[in-house]
Amino acid sequence: MNGSPRPAASPPQVALLTATGICKHFGDFTANDDVSFRIGAGEIHALLGENGAGKSTFVKMVYGLLHPDSGMFEWRGAPVVIRNPQHARDLGIGMVFQHFSLFQALTVAENIALAMPPGESIESLSDRVRAMSSEYGIGVDPDARVHNLSVGEQQRVEIVRCLLQDPALLIMDEPTSVLTPQESEQLFGVLRRFADAGVAILFISHKLEEVRSLTERATVLRRGQNVGTVESRKKTSKQLAEMMVGMAVGDIERREQGVGEPPAIFEISGLSRDRETQFSTPLRDISVVARAGEVLGIAGIAGNGQDEFMEALTGEWRASSAAMITVDSHQIGTAGPARRRQFGIGFVPEERNGHAAVTSMTLADNALLTGHSLNNVVRRGVIERAQMMQMAGEIASEFDVRLPEDNPLASSLSGGNLQKFVVGREIIKRPRVFIVSQPTWGVDVGAALFIRRAMLELAAEGSAVIMISQDLEEIFAISHRIAVLYDGSLSEPVVAADVTPESIGLLMGGSHSMDEART
Amino acid sequence: MITLSPRKTIPLQLTLLTPVVAIALTLVIGAIIFATLGYHPGEALYQFFVAPISRPDQVADLFVKACPLIIIASGLVFAYRANVWNIGAEGQMILGAMFGGWVALTFPDLSGWVMMPAMIAMGMLGGFLWAMIPAILKTRFNTNEILVSLMLTYVAALLIDWTVRGPWRDPMSFGFPLSPMYADAALITRVYLPGFGHLGGLHWGVIGALVIAVAAWFVLARTLTGFQVKVMGDAPRAGRFAGFNPSLVTIMVLGISGAAAGLAGMVEVSANMGQLQPEISFGYGFTAIIVAFLARLNPLAVIGAGLIVALAELGGDSAQIALGMPKVVTGVFKGILLFMLLAGETFNRFHVRLKMPVTAVREVSDA
Amino acid sequence: MLEQLLLTVLMTSVPLIFAATGELVAERSGVLNLGVEGMMLMGAVAAFATAFGTGNIWLAIIVGGLAGALTGGVFALFALGFATNQVATGLALTIFGTGLSGLVGAPLVGHAIDGLPQITIPVLSNLPFVGALLFSLDPMAYLAVALLAGVAWFLKRTRGGLVLRAVGDNHDSAHALGYSVLRVRLLAVLFGGMMAGLGGAYLPLMLTPHWAEGMTAGRGWIALALVVFASWLPWRVLVGALIFGGITIMQLAGQARGWTVPSQFLSMLPYLATIAVLVVISRNREFSLANFPSCLGRVFHAGK
Question: What is the pLDDT of residues A234-263, one digit of tens each?
């Protein structure tokens, strides 16, 4: 990473914010258990933890969106009860959310005005925006309507919105999840300038390399508890991951490719898709082949065509010519999802709530969702209910899905368990081709490991696996070959063992060739 | 300040209790409103809910009144489960009656074996076609089906008004807007059981309604078609992922609910009136919406819900005679009942608490 | 004769202007209230009863507005307080309002009242043609346009209007910023109810000075379509209302001119025109989506 690291700060003399013994329960679920924490002026401090560890809950309490059940906050040494976000802002705490809280139909200036106390005119606000924007090198136009801006630009609006309130503490929740490595580096430069100016930055992330590069200290939360505060650069990523998970993170065995090229099972040639709405990405002449026994990892930052590509693969969007997608030399580019499944293809889309599964229905019904055109589950239009329940039970037991009762509603399963079910629902059919997008998004470490192992086993049996993932660590963990999706174009696949994450990162940011990336 | 937090599981007792409590509260609130307006509340409730079935032979009347509600609501359940808001059942009913009447009036000499099936088919066709207008506009142009189907209700009412006063008016009716009487073959007769005789005014249409409700339940609960409808309503994206076609489902559910309403219209005219007149729907198309909600969109429960709402309808008649209340007052009960049912849904799915507004921002639950 | 016709067009459009402007505000905050018909009828019966009982027209107007607001409050209790399905709740409100107004109005059928007085604006009303048409109207007509202008200014230029638009665009973000989504929506719904009540009140107070069950005859539904037609912009509501006013009285005009088309078909015109407008609007997404409140009809749950 470029840029010299900031010298490690000595433990802060003047603690800006101190949290002591913070507890928060939701019903009988403990989100934060006796959490203590401190951050000083000018310090860049990371908050690490898995999904569900309590990071979001904690920062929401710092920002006044939630109130602790017990424990105390101190701001600049004085005890304080943070009543609501407005109060937090008055104190000098600003927050940039992971999922932007912008108003699409309004202009940038109007968006910013809503986050500020009333009284200032839009015109004067616009002037301040322009001034700040040029001072810190963040290009933001006050008169633009937000729905016309790119994701990176929208994030900058969020940041400017925070900065105009002159915060002493800036909280950022997973800010780089939508940025390329290069944009992230740019953001880090901006954040370092703020820190030099005395602003404290609390940085939530799960990207361990980033945390080590940007921050001085990191606090790890696990199951609602603070398991330790460390100096970021004195630990390796592996050590940080172990603190987060609480167990040694086993390396996953990846069967290396044998000599010679295995047969191509699934072929995409010249797949193009027009841009359909202002926010969609066109697909540009994508051609790639997935081979028997391999995992093809498709890396890329969100918003570069993954959704559109996945829809083209599942058949939710049909190509203009059947020849664009072939499986075992059957042309299926214009076939719908049910028909594609009959050719032995299984799909798992990114969103499990409402797309891969219907949360209000039982697991048996959800098994029917992708199984209705296969086997004998539907006879003359009538559903064989006993058979569906049995199938659901088999999936649950084979894929370690923890059930609260027999045939429960999908909504009563945790994220990780539902994902195991949705993945297992397809893999249990031993598909020829298995296509999945974000297989372990929002899933706990144990379930993620299980799912990745299942995919590797399927590949080892001779199937082709295509995995679209924004998580570069995951891509490198299990892919045999890697291609990068950038702005609707797919790069030439390379063997995973031959490249580094940095070179893939460059492709994710738009470099045009692997040669450029390898230098 | 009302605070809602989602329940983890929904206790069965609660789901069964909710409609009961809803009905009870409706009665109470209705009574209060009547009292405020100067009517004696006990008297009003008695006229509404007890008087209409105080004599055994009146039970058959209840079923007769419920007949169109059950047929229409059975069809509406399909549409609403698919999240397609067919509000035009009233108009579809009218078109069905007109199409059925066209058969009866144009071919008065058809034999019974041909006449009734033909009228049934045409009745369903009329409602189906009228529902196809919002269906096609929705699937092709993404036009909102609520307003379109509703506007068509007014159009249909004007259409039958013109028809009955104009081209189809009975020349022998002394200027009254009535069509000629249907031939006997076109009438739906009363049920006759050997040994029991006639069961009050119960006619074969009622039997048909019960059969339709059961058939609707079976299709919705046990067939792939029903599954498609439910998935499309709950999670359209999952439906497309499953390979279901959203436009097809929309057209299908509007077609089913339209055909059912059309059938109900044809049945009502043939069973109760014997001829076409300007007013044949009496708001049943809208009342059936309430029946569908009271039944919680379950076709089997539609039977019971239909009977309960039919009681209120009969009650409106008797209250008009006994107390001089206008017919439209049943709308008060029906409206309140629907409010209570909707609130009941909320009680089912959430813990409801009253909190003093200490903070301006709600507590949020987050993983 | 033409003057008389145009005057009737203007007056026929007044209830639509009231009701559509009110519903527009509610919808911009993200609430779809299909109960406009019910709120209008409650306003109508309340205004008529007051005018008949007290002879005070001004009081009648106020009571009509209040009745509409209260009826809107019932909707708010369920749709906002209990987070019920907005479509079904709106329908319930229409059925309830139609029924209750019929019940309340039963003893009033057959009676008549004096209508609103004319207000002649000095000087301007002496202009030829335009003077008699635009500047000698009744007070409620002027009120309708004044409120419409007020709403346009409020939405575009005030902080309150900005917050309301934000709530309708993204209620989760508004909540995260600390704004009370439910309070904003409650106020919007109550305003919408008041406007619908005023629109309904205009019918017995000015257009046809008596009470009849369901006398709005679907105007509430047309007002809903008008909001879509206007793509949620206030001044377009005025244009739409005038057009629909014109179509509505075409039936009278046709009869006066001895057209041979049966009256029922002429009466169908407003409803068919509404459908045509809806189709055109929904086809042209760019035109309609510029100001579309993204949260329209979606239930707000803190914590989602």
Answer: 887 767 766 765 544 445 555 555 556 788
Cβ neighbours of residue B139 closer than 8 Å, sequence gap 6 or more = B247, B250, B251
DSSP secondary structure string for all residues of A235-290:
S-HHHHHHHHHSS--PPPP-PPP-SSPPPEEEEEEEEEE---STT---EEEEEEEE
Percent of chain A with pLDDT over 70: 87
Secondary structure (DSSP) of C119-146: -PPTTGGGSTTHHHHHSS--HHHHHHHH
CA A203 to CA A403: how far, in whole Å? Answer: 35
What does the pLDDT average to over A153-179?
Answer: 83
pLDDT, residue C166, reads 94
Q: What is the phi-psi region of residue A54: left when phi exceeds 0, alpha when psi lies from -120 to 50, beta otherwise?
A: left
Q: Which residue has better confidence, B290 or A379?
A: B290
For B38, the token pair is: 């100067």
Instruction: Return the C-alpha torsion angle B335, B341, B344, B348, nearest 10.
Output: -150
| DSSP letter assigned to residue B278 | S
Within 8 A of A365 by CB-CB distance, chain B residues are 227
| pLDDT (average), residues B191-209 | 83
Q: Please report, for residues A342, A347, A496, B72, C172, the alpha-carbon distance to residue A375 in angstroms, rounded to integers and kept in the order given.
A: 10, 17, 37, 36, 43
Burial of B272 (0-12, 13-18, 19+ CB in 10 A): middle
Task: Name residue B276's amino acid.
Answer: L
| Chain A touched by C302 (CB under 8 Å) | no
Candidates B327, B229, B264, B279; CA nearest to B67 is: B264
- CA distance, residue B45 to nearest chain C CA (Å): 15
Per-residue pLDDT tens over the stretch B159-198: 999 999 888 888 887 878 888 888 888 888 888 777 777 7
Q: What predicted TM-score, i.e. pTM, was given to this entire model?
A: 0.81
Residue among A189, A241, A229 at smallest CA distance from A49:
A241
Element (H, E) at B13: helix B12-36
Whole-number Å distance between alpha carbons of B197 and B187 = 19
CA distances to A181, A305, A441, A493, A506 from A301, in Å? 9, 9, 14, 17, 11
* Each residue's pLDDT tens digit, B316-363: 888 888 887 777 778 888 899 899 989 988 888 888 888 765 444 433
Q: Cα Rg for chain C, rounded, in angstroms?
A: 19
CA nearest A200: which of A4, A19, A15? A15
DSSP 8-state secondary structure symbol assigned to residue A54: S
Which residues of C, range 89-128, sit inside 8 Å of B by Cβ? 89, 91-100, 102-104, 106
Q: What is the pLDDT of residues A295-308, one digit of tens each?
A: 999 998 777 889 99
In angstroms, the separation between the Cα of residue C135 and the nearest Cα of chain B is: 34
Fold topology of C2-108+127-289: ABC transporter involved in vitamin B12 uptake, BtuC (1.10.3470)
* CB pair distance less than 8 Å for C267 and B2: no
Write out pLDDT tens, residues A382-431. Answer: 888 888 999 999 999 999 898 888 888 898 888 889 999 999 999 999 99
Residue A517 φ then ψ, to 5°: -75, -30
| Cβ–Cβ < 8 Å for B212, B70 | yes
Every domain of chain B and the residues it spans? 59-300
Maximum pairwise Cα distance, chain C: 63
Task: Say yes or no for a CB contact (<8 Å) between A100 and C173.
Answer: yes
Q: Look up residue B284 and give its two tokens.
A: 């049943």
Residue of chain C whose alpha carbon sits nearest to that of A114 = C163
Q: Tell me what pLDDT residue A54 has.
A: 83
Determine, for residues C170 and A101 on separate chains, whether the beta-carbon distance falls below 8 Å. yes
Length of chain C (residues): 304
